[in-house]
């Protein structure tokens, strides 16, 4: 019994570690794909389009098992808002990784609880009692998270992913300029990643409101993926008019797209 209780207590920690490792791996795959020519705008379009195709049967199957309210204009407009927030956060996030590194993205992702706490206070979903130990711990955690984000944004470590080099390039050619982002790009990437993780709590708040009105997760996520795919597609058509940027090959770009289908 004691062993089972210990395993139950450790399970949430193991799940969080697994999710963090998964996010680091996915961010690293994406960075490797962009270093080999994959456009991050096209990546978002393909990623959410594939996710929508996977979830296409879900609304028809899940609606049979329960009685749900009709999908009216109010619900669909909120789903569209969810898609706009999601597409904006994804584009900012992948642009930030392109300018910096997956390590920075994974580090700044720890700001989500801090931003969630701040927005919950702003929207009066939570109160902050300064004399409460719980509130003091949350405030202290928020300050530490923000301080850590400033440190990792302003400090740049060595690169962990190198771009694909042509065989004709000499092995003695210096790779510093080709592989290491400049300080200005690193800071810009950090700011874009911070903006992404400010939008993530907003995404959670809007999603929670939709779930109260229409409690069918698979249907909501399906239409969300469709909305993000359409919005990102419009942006990608403007930023990537060259048809060669849309071609997929059986390499790390295709693997990163398939692995990113996790919503």
Automatic annotation (TrEMBL):
Residues 24-153 form the EamA domain. SUPFAM superfamilies: Multidrug resistance efflux transporter EmrE (SSF103481). Its main location: membrane. GO terms for molecular function: transmembrane transporter activity. The keyword Protease does not apply. It is found in: Membrane. Keywords: Membrane, Transmembrane, Transmembrane helix. It is a multi-pass membrane protein. The chain crosses the membrane at residues 38-58, 103-125, 137-155, 186-206, 218-238. One of its GO terms (cellular component) is membrane. Belongs to the drug/metabolite transporter (DMT) superfamily. Plant drug/metabolite exporter (P-DME) (TC 2.A.7.4) family. This is WAT1-related protein.
């Amino acid at each position: 019994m004691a062993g089972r209780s210990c395993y139950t207590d450790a399970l949430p920690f193991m799940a969080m570690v697994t999710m963090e490792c998964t996010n680091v791996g996915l961010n690293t795959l994406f960075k490797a794909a962009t270093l080999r020519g994959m456009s991050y705008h096209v990546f978002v379009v393909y990623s959410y389009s594939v996710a929508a195709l996977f979830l296409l049967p879900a609304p028809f199957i899940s609606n049979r098992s329960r009685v749900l309210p009709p999908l009216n204009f109010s619900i669909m407009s909120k789903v569209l808002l969810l898609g706009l927030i999601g597409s904006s956060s994804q584009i900012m996030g992948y642009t930030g990784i392109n300018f910096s590194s997956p390590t920075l993205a994974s580090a700044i992702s720890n700001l989500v609880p801090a931003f969630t706490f701040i927005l919950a206070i702003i929207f009066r979903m939570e109160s902050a009692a300064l004399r409460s130990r719980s509130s003091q711990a949350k405030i202290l955690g928020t300050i530490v998270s923000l301080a850590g984000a400033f440190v990792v944004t302003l400090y740049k470590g060595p690169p962990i992913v190198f771009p694909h080099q042509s065989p004709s390039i000499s092995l003695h050619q210096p790779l510093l300029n080709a592989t290491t982002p400049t300080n200005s790009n690193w800071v810009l990437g950090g700011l874009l990643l911070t903006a992404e993780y400010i939008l993530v709590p907003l995404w959670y708040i809007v999603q929670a409101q939709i779930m109260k009105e229409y409690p069918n997760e698979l249907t909501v996520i399906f239409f969300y993926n469709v909305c993000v795919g359409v919005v990102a597609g419009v942006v990608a058509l403007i930023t990537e008019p060259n048809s060669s940027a849309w071609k997929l090959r059986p390499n790390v770009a295709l693997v990163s797209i398939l692995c990113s289908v996790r919503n």
